[in-house]
Each structure stands twice: as structure tokens, then as C-alpha cells.
């Protein structure tokens, strides 16, 4: 049985849901969650179905199972928060986008960190365009895609720490060293579903992406800017790879996210003052 590794930072009625990536863990969102809690928000870093266990555990789940986990976490925040922002890293950003599309009344803002619609970064193989065909074959679904250097991390010291943890016996902290082909196929199905709904996402959105992202090229962020239905803010990092929440510019990322959250806290205060008949003075 997989132990629940979700992280909850207690706070006020402003809620933030953070979702980790494919094969990842809530730990990759921990520092971001801690910083956002300092704004007074209640922050939940959820754990997706099949994660923090073995490759077999992950392979036994579908993208709909991951989404159900995210929906359950959203419901948990809805029970205690009046305003909610959803965000995620890599695949987690794609799941967050689906939550925003499907729960437009509950989700007020969206944060997409290194959003991945295509694996087209500089470290991906030249034959990547064939992977979509390969993973749909029986052999492809059984294939194990091993993690390769630089593992999404530019900082060498951090990379060594993560690699040692990832290739150790416990996947609950740094994630799995390999991703089942069936899970990559499920991710492609999730992405296909979400891309159809991007125009419906009208919540204010923050996108953070590294110019040197080794797994997902900056074109992923440009695509989202063009197709999302609402206002989009963007931060392009110049000294980071894919895992922006733990790489060299993680403090810049958390500060920008905190500033984004604080604008919603301000909006919420204005809304409450208006409802109580008070004039808000900036």
C-alpha cells in the first residue's frame, strides 16, 4: 500500500493546490508550498494516484485516476477556502489546467510551471517524433523510459542529490528512475484532452518556463499563451532546466508565484469589503 505523502500548509481562506509531475512526488512542490503559505494561504501539495510507489503502481493507473486525485484535493480545499488557485509542475501543470477548465466556478487562478505539452527539449532524442507511435504499440506500452542526465536540473550539486535519491530504494522523495511506456501514453491522452479546452480557461494564469528547458522547449509556453482564453503572465528563466521548483532559480520562481497569489488575496479583500458595504481605499 502506498503511503500518502501529500503536504498541507495551514493558512487562511485563500487556497492553493500544487500538483507534482509524472513519476514525481509532492516533495518537488514543497519549497514552493512553504513560501506560498507565508502569504497566509492554505497550501495543499497533493499526491497523485499510483505515485510515490513502484513503477508497477504507476503503470496500473490511467490519467483519469491522476485527475480524480487532483479533483479530490480541490474538494478538500473548497471545504475550507473561498478563493482557490491551482498550479502544477510539468504534467501537474496540465492537470491543473484541466481543473481550471472543468471547475471554472471553484478555480480562480492558474499557475503552470514548466508546462509540458510536448517532450521536445534539447536533451530529448532526435527521433522523439516517433515516440507517439511507439508508445501505442504493445512493446512501447511495456517499455521503461529511463531518466537521463541532466534529469531536468542545471545545478550540479542539486542534480547529484536528486539522482542519488532517485536511483536509491525509496521513490517517495525524488520520484522514479524510469517511467513506464503506458504512463507516457496516458500523459499523451491527457494532453490531447486538455488542448481541446484551453480556450475555455479564462482564469488569470501565470506561466513559468526555462529558456533552456531540457525536456519541454519554451515553445510549450508560447503555445499556451496563444491558446489560453484569459490573461496570461509569463516568466522566462535564464538559469534553470525543467524542474524549476528545485533548480537554481527556485527562489525567483517561488517569489513570483507568491506575488501572483498575493494579488488574489488583495482581490478577495476588495470583494469582502464590497459585500460588507465598505469602500475600499488602495
From TrEMBL:
It comes from Microvirga alba. Keywords: Hydrolase. Pfam families: Hydrolase_4 (PF12146). The active site is at residues 90, 213, 242. Residues 16-248 form the Serine aminopeptidase S33 domain. This is Alpha/beta fold hydrolase. The keyword Lipid metabolism does not apply. PANTHER family: AB HYDROLASE SUPERFAMILY PROTEIN YCLE (PTHR43798:SF31), MONOACYLGLYCEROL LIPASE (PTHR43798). GO terms for molecular function: carboxylic ester hydrolase activity. The record marks 161 as: Important for substrate specificity.
Amino acid at each position: 500500500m502506498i503511503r500518502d505523502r501529500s503536504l498541507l500548509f495551514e493558512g487562511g481562506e485563500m487556497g492553493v493546490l500544487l500538483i507534482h509531475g509524472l513519476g514525481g512526488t509532492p516533495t518537488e512542490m514543497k519549497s514552493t508550498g512553504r513560501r506560498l503559505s507565508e502569504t497566509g494561504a492554505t497550501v495543499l501539495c497533493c499526491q497523485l494516484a499510483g505515485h510515490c510507489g513502484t513503477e508497477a503502481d504507476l503503470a496500473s493507473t490511467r490519467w483519469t485516476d491522476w485527475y480524480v486525485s487532483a479533483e479530490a484535493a480541490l474538494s478538500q480545499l473548497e471545504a475550507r477556502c473561498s478563493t482557490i488557485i491551482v498550479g502544477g509542475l510539468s504534467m501537474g501543470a496540465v492537470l491543473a489546467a484541466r481543473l481550471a477548465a472543468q471547475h471554472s466556478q471553484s478555480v480562480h487562478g492558474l499557475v503552470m510551471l514548466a508546462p509540458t505539452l510536448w517532450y521536445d527539449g534539447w536533451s530529448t532524442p532526435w527521433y522523439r517524433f516517433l515516440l507517439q507511435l511507439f508508445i501505442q504499440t504493445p512493446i512501447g506500452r511495456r517499455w521503461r523510459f529511463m531518466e537521463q542526465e541532466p534529469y531536468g536540473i542545471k545545478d550540479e550539486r542539486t542534480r547529484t542529490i536528486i539522482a542519488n535519491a532517485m536511483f536509491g530504494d525509496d521513490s517517495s522523495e525524488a520520484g522514479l528512475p524510469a517511467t513506464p511506456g503506458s504512463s507516457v501514453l496516458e500523459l499523451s491522452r491527457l494532453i490531447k484532452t486538455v488542448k481541446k479546452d484551453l480556450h475555455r480557461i479564462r482564469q488569470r494564469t501565470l506561466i513559468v518556463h526555462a529558456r533552456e528547458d531540457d525536456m519541454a522547449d519554451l515553445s510549450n509556453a508560447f503555445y499556451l499563451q496563444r491558446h489560453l482564453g484569459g490573461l496570461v503572465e509569463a516568466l522566462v528563466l535564464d538559469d534553470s532546466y525543467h524542474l524549476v521548483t528545485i533548480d537554481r532559480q527556485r527562489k525567483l520562481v517561488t517569489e513570483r508565484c507568491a506575488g501572483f497569489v498575493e494579488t488574489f488575496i488583495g482581490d478577495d479583500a476588495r470583494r469582502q469589503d464590497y459585500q460588507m458595504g465598505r469602500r475600499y481605499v488602495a
